[in-house]
Automatic annotation (TrEMBL):
The active site is at E183. The keyword Ubl conjugation does not apply. Gene3D superfamilies: Phosphoenolpyruvate-binding domains. Its cofactor is Mg(2+). Binds 1 Mg(2+) ion per subunit. Its EC number is 2.1.2.11. GO terms for biological process: pantothenate biosynthetic process. This is 3-methyl-2-oxobutanoate hydroxymethyltransferase. Homodecamer; pentamer of dimers. CDD domains: KPHMT-like. GO terms for cellular component: cytoplasm. It is found in: Cytoplasm.
Length: 265
């Protein structure tokens, strides 16, 4: 199989082929997602929520991200793997940002990293890029800044914020990032950004006018229940199916139905 590269993603945008992207956090799931033909797999810091049960993405550590990333990477034959730099690993100092990115590349054997923010973190983006590490940007709703904003509502609805977002997107493109995630912004704004940029814009809650879509695996599978934003399409109700399987197993153990004669030595 031919590996997806950042260059191939650029070509996909140029010819109008939409880019599919999904999160994964472990080997077993990463393998299924890769075999399905996903273009990009994101080892998201949403692992903090869906894997570790934290309320936000703030607590997850670089070591924990490396563990998830290394597990996923072992399963991947085709997809481009992007790994989130977690909160605290890149904001303070661009040299620390580079050290964090290098650890992800070396210890997890990742293909690229993603950072949240625009002008505030441009020094870190530049330093990581100059070391030859591909960077994906992330603008709009940036969950690592949740305590600054206080809510997970739609971003850049007002003109000043929309203008700033467009400037940040252009600044990131000029710096050399290979793609940008746009999270939870008005569809019209996201469409405009995708038109203005030559690099792919991958949306989540950003409408259909962008170059690709990303979702969180556990949300689209219907494993998470509490989280139900408008942009989320559920492709399964895995929560119910798993609950049923666990209940049936319990019942079979209690009733001594399991194991039967054939299920023993
Ligand atoms: O961590 C994550 O899952 C993400 C996506 C929502 C883009 O950053
Ligand atoms: Na993330």
């Amino acid at each position: 199989v031919k590996r997806v590269t950042t260059h191939i993603l650029q070509e996909m945008k140029a010819r109008g082929e939409k880019i599919s992207m999904l999160t994964a956090y472990d080997y077993t799931m990463g393998r299924i997602v890769d075999q399905a033909g996903m273009d990009v797999i994101l080892v998201g810091d949403s692992a903090s929520n869906v894997m570790a049960g934290h309320e936000t993405t703030v607590p997850i550590t670089l070591d924990q991200m490396i563990y998830h990333a290394a597990s996923v990477i072992r399963a991947i034959k085709r997809a481009l793997v992007v790994v989130d730099l977690p909160f605290g690993a890149y904001q303070g100092d661009s040299k620390e940002a580079l050290r964090s990115a290098i650890r992800i590349m070396k210890e997890a054997e990742a293909h690229s990293v993603k950072l949240e923010g625009g002008r505030e973190i441009i020094e870190s983006v530049n330093r990581i890029l100059s070391a030859g590490i591909p960077v994906m940007g992330h603008l709009g709703l940036t969950p690592q800044s949740i305590y600054k904003f206080g809510t997970y509502t739609v971003r850049a609805k007002e003109e000043a914020e929309a203008k700033r977002l467009i400037e940040d997107a252009k600044m990131l493109e000029e710096a050399g990032v290979f793609a940008i995630v746009l999270e939870k912004v008005p569809a019209a704004l996201a469409t405009e950004v995708a038109k203005e940029l030559t690099i792919p814009v991958i949306g989540i809650g950003a409408g259909g006018g962008v170059d690709g879509q990303v979702l969180v695996m556990h949300d689209m599978l219907g494993i998470t229940q509490e989280f139900s934003p408008r942009f989320l399409r559920r492709y399964h109700n895995l929560y119910q199916e798993m609950l049923g399987a666990f209940e049936n197993y319990i019942a079979d153990v209690k009733s001594s139905d399991f194991p039967n004669e054939k299920e023993q030595y």
